[in-house]
Amino acid sequence: MTVDFVLRDWNAWAPGMSCHEDWQKWRDHQTFAQEEKAAIPAAVPKILQRRLSPLARAVFNAADGCIDSDKSLPIVFSSAHGEVNKSLEMLKSMQKGEEVSPTAFSLSVHNAIAGLFSIAYDCHQEITVIAPGQDGIAPAFIEALGLLQEHHSEVLIVLYDEPLSDFYPSLPFALNAPAICALALKVSLTGNGLPLQFNNSSAHRDDGEQALQILSFIKFLVADDNTLVLGNHRHSWEWHKK
Amino acid sequence: MENELKQLIIDTLDLEDISVADIDSQAPLFNDGLGLDSIDALELGLAIRKKYNVKIDAEKEDVVKIFASVSTLADYIQAARD
């Protein structure tokens, strides 16, 4: 399978990083700021702002830099673990005999951030939320490229994850990046931007799950490298700058 | 009672930028007024049960009337406790 597409625009947020120049500098030191929360975009209605978790703020911040307010796009969200840390907090409060907050429950489901986003941005286009498990960022590309083949002119991909609570044993798996990170990519089949080719690969790779692969992809975007290969013991995929 | 209830609404629903004085006792709580939604209604119902030991049963009560405004909610809680 080989598909050509164009990366029209991208934007990523992590603590201390909110523009392309920040990520250029990050390429050399690869460290993050401590405990910073993403700014909430001005487009988000006040009454919804209180519902945004730190992870949702990162997603909104990254996506907002990639979209035009007057044109809503189909969106493919992808997160390995979503807001599972919220579910853990609820389970802990149930263990203490407390009642579960309906708000916390509604915001803990895997598509909660996508739901909030569609309300805040009045998006009536097709929205998909993928839990890619072991396979990292590639399933989101496959889904988005499929939507482009179905004659959508542009699709927004939003990849996001936050470190899992220490409660969950992660070894021997490579699940966690050092910080929250969200990456938004606007893709199309034609037009201006960075032309890319996407294909599967027979390489055996050990690049970790999505949280780590997001950072590898950002590094690929800001570096001079022409090829990125990512995989996590199962399928492997390649991205080439053309 | 009404002011106490307003503070409970602000604290429970994370309405950081709103003060007790900003909430009109007669104004609608949902949609047009404060702009609260159905999740807020559930959250508020839970907070009222915890604080006043008053359970609002959606099966038996006219929830729309009870939650119409701070004033109607205060009347309902008052009556249920007496």
From TrEMBL, chain A:
Q: Which InterPro entries match?
A: Ketoacyl_synth_N
- Residues in Beta-ketoacyl synthase-like N-terminal domain copies: 23-239
What's this protein's name? Answer: Beta-ketoacyl synthase-like N-terminal domain-containing protein
The organism encoding this protein is: Methylobacter tundripaludum (strain ATCC BAA-1195 / DSM 17260 / SV96)
Source species taxonomy: Bacteria, Pseudomonadati, Pseudomonadota, Gammaproteobacteria, Methylococcales
TrEMBL record, chain B:
Superkingdom of the source species: Bacteria
Q: What InterPro entries does the record point to?
A: ACP-like_sf, PP-bd_ACP
Please name the PROSITE patterns in this protein's record. Answer: CARRIER (PS50075)
Q: Where is the Carrier domain?
A: 1-81
Record's Pfam families? PP-binding
This chain belongs to the protein called: Acyl carrier protein
Organism in which the protein naturally occurs: Methylobacter tundripaludum
